[in-house]
Design a protein that fits this description.
The protein is an alpha/beta fold. Helices cover 35% and strands 18% of the residues. Helix 2 packs across helix 4.
Length: 234
């Protein structure tokens, strides 16, 4: 079924301009899980990480655009001391992720927001609050006139740096070569960041990294993903 208008009015911030899908199909069970969990682990626009009951001393790692939650589950499985912040505007994806996190037993270590990443970093995350940021296979917006919609832009990169703790990291992945190079060139030029592979280079795939849905889709189309890893200088 489609998400009901009442549900969308409750959880989608219509006044915030975003690009990409916002509505889609969910099962009755998925909608019920959202209704149960979002009031408990959600980050509505008036709430910040400081209000989110994050355990003292827990590393805080964010995934921007988490899709169906596969990578969030992977992070939770491999880092049991982390608190994960998931950012995703597509509510059916959030519904799938919530179900997977609950089934895996990790839902209470996750905080979820359906707000645009720019708003989240500007208004919900304090300076030097994050230990890491993951961005996996963001929308490539391949047409030149749409490049301004790509998530990695100069101002956004600089904003991410301010939200990272010294020594914190940004990891990115894309199976679109032009987008991977676009992200690399912007982040290589961003003050305060160091490319772990060296300027102009990509890192090898993390050995324990799972193949996400979008990566598998790229492989079926003959595209190989490229990976970037940056550290915020102390």
């Amino acid at each position: 079924m489609r998400l009901t208008k009442e549900f969308r009015d409750q959880f989608i911030q219509h006044e915030m301009r975003t690009h990409g899908r916002k509505n889609g199909f969910v099962t009755t069970g998925q909608e019920a899980r959202l209704l149960h969990w979002l009031p408990l682990i959600g980050l509505p626009k008036e709430k910040t990480l400081a209000d989110a009951n994050i355990p003292a001393g827990s590393p805080v790692v964010m995934e921007i655009g988490f899709g169906n939650g596969d990578f969030l589950v992977h992070l939770a499985q491999n880092h049991p001391d982390w608190t994960l912040i998931g950012v995703e505007i597509y509510l059916p994806g959030v519904a799938k992720a919530v179900g997977r996190l609950e089934d895996a037993g990790f839902i209470e270590r996750t905080r979820i927001t359906q707000l645009p990443a720019q708003f989240v970093l500007e208004h919900q995350v304090g300076e030097a609050s994050l230990d890491g940021i993951h961005i996996n296979h963001p929308d490539p917006w391949p047409k030149a006139r749409h490049h301004k919609r790509r998530i990695i832009q100069k101002d956004f990169a600089e904003l991410m740096v301010t939200r990272l703790k010294p020594g914190g990291y940004i990891k990115l992945a894309s199976d679109k070569a032009d987008l991977a190079e676009w992200m690399r060139d912007i982040l290589d030029a961003t003050p305060g960041l160091e490319n772990v592979a060296g300027t102009g280079c990509f890192v090898e795939r993390d050995e324990d990294r799972p193949e996400t849905k979008f990566e598998q889709r790229g492989l079926r189309a003959g595209r190989i993903s490229q990976f970037l890893h940056y550290i915020k200088r102390a």
